[in-house]
Amino acid sequence: MLSVFESMENRGHEEVVFCNDKDTGLKAIIAIHNTTIGPALGGCRMWAYETDEDALKDVLRLSRGMSYKAAIAGLNLGGGKAVIIGDSKTDKNEILFRSFGRFVQGLAGRYITAEDVGTSVKDMEWVRTETRYVTGISRALGGSGDPSPVTALGTFSGIKATVKKQLGKDSLFGLKVGVQGVGHVGYHLCRYLTREGVELFVTDIDDASIKRVVEEFGAKVIDLDEIYESDIDIYAPCALGATLNDETIPKLRCSIVAGAANNQLQKEDIHAKMLKDRGILYAPDYAINAGGLINCANEIEGYNRERAFRQAEEGIYDTLMEVFKRAEAEDVTTHNAASKVAEKRMSDVAKLKNVYLPKKNVMGKRDNA
Ligand code: NAD
Questions:
Q1: Which residue's alpha carbon is at the smallest distance from atom 18 of ligand 1?
Q2: Total domains present in the chain
Q3: What is the domain extent for residue 32?
């Protein structure tokens, strides 16, 4: 097994903090991957990891992903993530999250936290009592609230960019779109798609969620596994990760994959290549679903809902067009091209380090401004 330092070095991490508070029972890990562009932002996941190694592996993987997501979205943020080891159904309480908040405060703004799997707005409000380096709090407390509508708008805009590139069309009118998962993001995505006049197909394991989109948008329901081989133009994964794999890719009849789910490719390089070889245009997940992060970034600067929506809509369209152009020019997968676009921004900004700037505090204002 690799040592902690070897694991950090392999992925290029700057700092990993192990938080252990005997009195509150908190066991957490905060990983800061890269702060070249700005403070590391990423959610706090609460999960009952079987071993500490599993928790470390997850936080290292997720925090690196956040650096790429922020860089490609053009945000002035770096990548970080935290995991709290515990069962989110039984182990949550105020003191645990306040304790976590104190560790976040101890990093003096190098890491900014938010919600993630297993944590909620309420938990982040407990964290907020101990530190201001937290986003995703409710709108009533000056936060940005639920990020799903912004994520959905960014995804919708990303679908339009992908259609423009693959089919040469400016409108989605008449196209058949299959949305897998009509929860928070999927529901709002269906709303945008319906307005544009698509033929909407949906699938979900939750009957109430399905009923809502059938009643409100006239969506047609398809079975869970049927979505891959359906006669649709666009497959929009908005539920689980790893749905693009050896089994599903050969079945696809669509020419576009563009949706909000995280980690859609089971094996990144292999499955991105399989899609390319089949002539299917894939919108890289972390580029198309960056709306939620854009929302958090706006919260740091003083939340303006209109600006957040505009940035997601325009920014994600332009980013994907740049990725597609690069992929075509270099004959690489869109996944590979997206990594290069993100890495280029990180290395370009790194060059600025030689230039003197007045010290910046993390909430975006220069101390002498
Ligand atoms: P959610 O839990 O509200 O919705 C997910 C939906 O998928 C649920 O309705 C669930 O019943 C359904 N589902 C679960 N298993 C399924 C299956 N096997 N087949 C079909 N449907 C299934 O989550 P969400 O917030 O809407 O997020 C959806 C995806 O987008 C996730 O992968 C999430 O990581 C990603 N994402 C979300 C945001 C955000 O702002 N919420 C931001 C970026 C990425």
A1: 205
A2: 2
A3: 4-58+79-137
